[in-house]
Structures are given as C-alpha cells and as structure tokens.
Amino acid sequence: MSVLVYTENWDGKFKKLSFELVSYAKAIADQLNTEAVAVSIGNVEEDELKKLGNYGAKKIFNVQDEKLKNLANQPYAKIIAQVAEKEDANVLVFANNFTGKAVAPRVSVKLKAGLAGGVIELPSSLDPFMVKRKVFTNKAFANIKIKSEKKVLTLFQNSFEIKETENAASIENFTPEFSDADFRTEVKEVNKVTGKILLTDAEIVVSGGRGMKSPEKWEPLEELAEVLGGATACSRPVSDEGWRPHEEHVGQTGKIIAPNLYIALGISGAIQHLGGVSSSKIIVAVNTDKDAPIFEAADYGIVGDVHKILPQFIEAVKEVKAEG
Amino acid sequence: MKILVCISNVPDTTTKIKFKEDNKVFDTTGVQWIINPWDELALTRALELKEGSGGKIEKVSVALVGDKSSEPTIRKALAIGADDAFRVDTDPGDSFYVATQLKEIAKDYDIVLCGIESSDYTSSAVGGMLSEMLEWPSVSSVSRLNIEGDDVSIRREIDGGQEIVSSQMPFVGIVQKGIALEPRIPAMRGIMMARKKPLNVLEPIEAETLTEYENFEMPPPKAAVKLVDEENVKELVELLKNEAKAI
Ligand SMILES: Cc1cc2nc3c(=O)[nH]c(=O)nc-3n(C[C@H](O)[C@H](O)[C@H](O)COP(=O)(O)OP(=O)(O)OC[C@H]3O[C@@H](n4cnc5c(N)ncnc54)[C@H](O)[C@@H]3O)c2cc1C
C-alpha cells in the first residue's frame, strides 16, 4: 500500500503547490501507516526532485522522455496509473488545477477509483473513506464518501499546511510503457508570460472592478500590487470590456484563487465573483457604496472613492514597509 | 462529422444554496434551473462551427443524464439550435456513473464537448472520465476551438499562458471561458422549432457509483467587516500588517 502524489513541474521546477501536495500525501500516508511516493513527469534535475523528499516523499519516480515535455492527458494518465499499480497505491493525490483536472479523472477510470475533486482537509475517516470538498462553486462543503478500494483526490490550493520533515528520499528512474498511439494530441505553440507573479501563485492579489471606471486608471492599482509584491486581477465585466487581459478574470467563470490577501477595488461582490475569491484568507474592500455585498465577504473595508484612496494606500504601504 | 455537447442541469448561478433533511439533501425549493454556463458556451461554439463548415458538420446533438424535471433545460438547448437531444432517464449519481451513461451516446460522434465543471457539484470530472472510457484523447481548459478540414486546432489555458494544441479525431474537448464570447439566446423561431426536434429518452445502462454524498455544510459565518475611515488609510495598512499579518 502507498499514497501516490503527482507533482507537476514548471520548466523543470517545483513550487509551493508541489510541496503542499506532498505534505498532504504524507499526512494521509501517516493516517494509513504507509508511505508517500511521488511521480514526476518531464525534465527535472535530481537536486530539484530531492526537494520533494523534504516534505515527506519516501520515493520519487522520475519519468523523463522527450515526448513527455508537454502535457498530453492520455499518456500522462497511463504513466501515473502504471506507477500506482507498481506501488500498490490506494490513494492518489493531484492538484485541483488545470493539469490535475485534466489527468486525475482519466486516472480514476483506469484504476476504477472514486474521485473527490477540490478536497480541503485530510480524510475525516478511513473506513468508510470520508473527505470534505467544495461544492456549489465554493458556496458550500460536502462530506463525500469514496466507496471504491482506490481513491483519487484533487487538493484545493492553499488548503493544507506545508510541513518540512527530516527524510531522505530515493529517486528511481521509471520507464513507462506507452506507444505512439497514445500521443494523439500535439502541442504546436506555447505562449507564456515570464517574470510576472502568476495569479494562481500569488500570496497577495489586488483586483479591480467596474468601479475603476476606465482602463487608463489602472496604473495606481498596478503600483499597489507592485509595492505589495502581489499580482493583479479583475472582475468579469472588466475583462469582457477588454480593459484588462482575460487571464486576470477571477470568479466562478474565471480563475479560482485563494491568496492570503485579496484586495477588491471598485468591485460590487456579486455571488459569481465571490465564488472565485471567497477562499482568500483576508479580504479587503474599497467601495463607494456602503451596502455593496463585497462588504459582507470582507474582513476589512473602506467606504470611499477608490481613486482618492489608492494613492494614500500606496504611500501607507511604503511607509509601513519602511518602518519594518 | 458530428458533434455531441454534454450538458448538465444546474441551479442558476445566483441561487442561495440551502440544504434539508439534516443537511443530507440539496434543497431545490424555488431554484431556477439553467444549462450549466460552460456547457452553454460549448453548445454555442459547436453551432458556430457547424454553420461555418459548409455542411461538413452534419449535426450537433446534446446529451443529458437526468430525470424528467431536466427537460426544460434540454428544450432550451434545442431552442438554441441543437439538432436533437438525448436524455438518459436516471438520477445523475456521481461523475463515474454519468460518464458511463454518456459513453453509450458519445461513441458515435467525432467531437464531444463538455464543460470544465458543473456549477453544482463542481467535480470537473465527467469530461475526463468519458474520454478515458472511450479511449479517446482529451484536451482540457479549452478556450478556443477551430476546425479546418480534418485539422483540429485548440487553444488550451495553462498556468500563466496558453498553448496551441492539435488533436486527432475523435476527441473530447473540455471547455471553459473563451470558447464562445456569449451564450446564444434562443430566438422565438428556435423555441417553436425545438418542440418538433427529436428528444430521445434512453433507459440507463447498469453502472455503479463510486462516491456518495454523506452530508453538506455551509461555510462558518464571517465576522462583520472592520471599517476604516477613508481619511485614515494608514490605519488599514497597519491592521493588515499587525492584526491580519497579511503583509
Ligand atoms: C453565469 C455568470 C457567471 C459570472 N461569472 C463571473 C465571474 O467569474 N467573475 C466576476 O467577476 N463576475 C462574474 N459574473 C458577473 C457578476 O454577476 C457581476 O456582474 C460582476 O462581478 C460585476 O463586476 P464589478 O463588481 O466589477 O462591477 P459592478 O457590479 O458594476 O460593481 C462596481 C462597483 O464599484 C463601485 N464603485 C463605483 N465607483 C467607485 C469608486 N469611484 N470607488 C470605489 N468604488 C466604486 C460600485 O459601488 C459597485 O459596487 C457572472 C455572471 C453570470 C450570470
């Protein structure tokens, strides 16, 4: 028996999310009195792979093949299922992100394993296997029972504490079995922004809504994000209008984020918007309308004009940071 | 060439979520039901592709797993422009069960589109499971889909960017925002025609569910917002630093 975690890499590197996943897998392994095993697909150097050991992975399967450079759902699922079988994995852990959502359901069919997506805690019981997940676009939680012998979980971001442990992991090269017939999709072009904090990774997010009034007025919002070391986001009408790139759109139909701090500027707080941001630890709202629903979701707020408040906000952050 | 769009019947996005019977059951009193927003966009794109294909795409169908109460949602899909519809007459059970039912219908199609998640149980799983059951390739987080001749060109969202991906047919596309700009709204003529379009009701096949909901919970109520005066922005920043420890 074992707990298998799939650790995606980004240009050969892991990030916080990867360590969160390994910590989670290790904690389930402890509950089950077994070991956490990780599988990595793609080009990752040994030093980087070893890092997974620091969070509790006992063994790391390293799958390297030029063909597997880009995500291809079908062969990735096949490989992960092969490792799961080899290691007799009972529980499989994925991220609840683009890649996890693409691969986990395929693996679950291969292993005939029930899937719980967007889980936020350790299983509350092992027999029956019960775990809590988000439902109704984050408006509620459900306790779900997985009845199959094997289980597939996707972990909601920022919901489990990262824990370092003393542990030396062994790295094993794994040669999967696959054929050309498994590669029926092909990546032709990759367009990625580099050097910017990704919205889904950011600890602090500064977000603007229609109350920002026009795209030219975004400069101070960007400056606030910069002094805070955060990323920028926006509400749906703002991206629909083309004021901001659609990658910034957060909410039920956009990105779902869970930063430490979410600052909503000129955003009314529609239920569909909150669906994407309500898991933030702290929410701050600035709005001229004291009855705007965003104040019901917010921890801190200012009733006032965002354009007057932004310059003071930036100055105050600079001062407070300078005070140390 | 034929396209199948899998649709689910979900509560309107503004629904206040409530549970009953000891929080074991979702309370549907007063709930307005709609086509899952992503599925509606997928259907819109499928119709655009058909119209632009010069007859190469013969048909766009929709499929839904659900009891009779979901028929208004199917009729709406037909009114928007789907040529015909399938309803598997059973309770949706779980993602695995639904995918097993859809497989029987999907196997006769070239392209199957599913929404990235349904706004009710939010599992993001049916499309991926279906593709594996069919042993077809799948591409997820699809935000654009073009078909020229037999070439399928897909834009897929990835962390911090996008990829352009080609796929062989048949395939399953799991779509999200961007696939179509706005969902199509049924016109009067469409609503009239929808009544005459075939809605095939199928008996479910034997299949199991692998998961089961035990009960539901609402998030704990949030403490009231702490308001800071607009003349005193620095106080807010200090609170964020010292009290919330967020900066
Ligand atoms: C199916 C569906 C899915 C949706 N998905 C999403 C989604 O994913 N994300 C999303 O964001 N929305 C989504 N929406 C739209 C959502 O319902 C709202 O329309 C949207 O969130 C409103 O955006 P907003 O807050 O920027 O604009 P508004 O609602 O117009 O709010 C602007 C706010 O700015 C305030 N304001 C005005 N001037 C100032 C000023 N000078 N200073 C400070 N405050 C000011 C106003 O008081 C107001 O509260 C969805 C809707 C549907 C139907």
Report on this model:
- The complex is a heterodimer of chains A (324) and B (247).
- Chain A is α/β, with parallel strands linked by helices and 324 residues long.
- Chain A folds into two domains: 2-183, 3-Layer(aba) Sandwich (Rossmann fold); 204-323, TPP-binding domain (Rossmann fold).
- Chain A is built from nine helices and 16 strands.
- Chain A has helices at 16-31, 46-51, 73-86, 98-111, 219-228, 236-240, 271-277, 294-297, 306-323; strands at residues 2-6, 35-41, 57-63, 89-95, 114-119, 125-126, 129-135, 140-146, 151-155, 170-173, 185-192, 204-208, 231-234, 261-265, 282-287, 300-303.
- By secondary structure, chain B is of the alpha/beta class.
- Chain B has a single domain, classed as HUPs (Rossmann fold), CATH 3.40.50.620.
- Chain B has helices at 37-51, 71-80, 95-106, 126-134, 188-194, 233-243, and strands at 2-6, 9-11, 19-20, 25-26, 33-35, 59-65, 84-88, 111-115, 138-148, 151-158, 161-167, 171-175, 199-202, 211-217, 226-227.
- In chain B, the strands form three sheets. In chain B, strands 11-10-9-12-8-1-6-7-13 form a nine-stranded mixed sheet, sandwiched between helices.
- In chain B, helix 3 (95-106) crosses helix 4.
- At the A-B interface, helix 3, helix 4, strand 5, strand 7 and strand 8 of A face helix 3, helix 4, strand 9, strand 10 and strand 11 of B.
- Strand 8 of chain A pairs antiparallel with strand 14 of chain B, so a sheet runs across the interface.
- Flavin-adenine dinucleotide binds at residues 209-211, 235-238, 251-254, 266-268, 270, 272-273, 276, 286-289, 292, 305-307 of chain A.
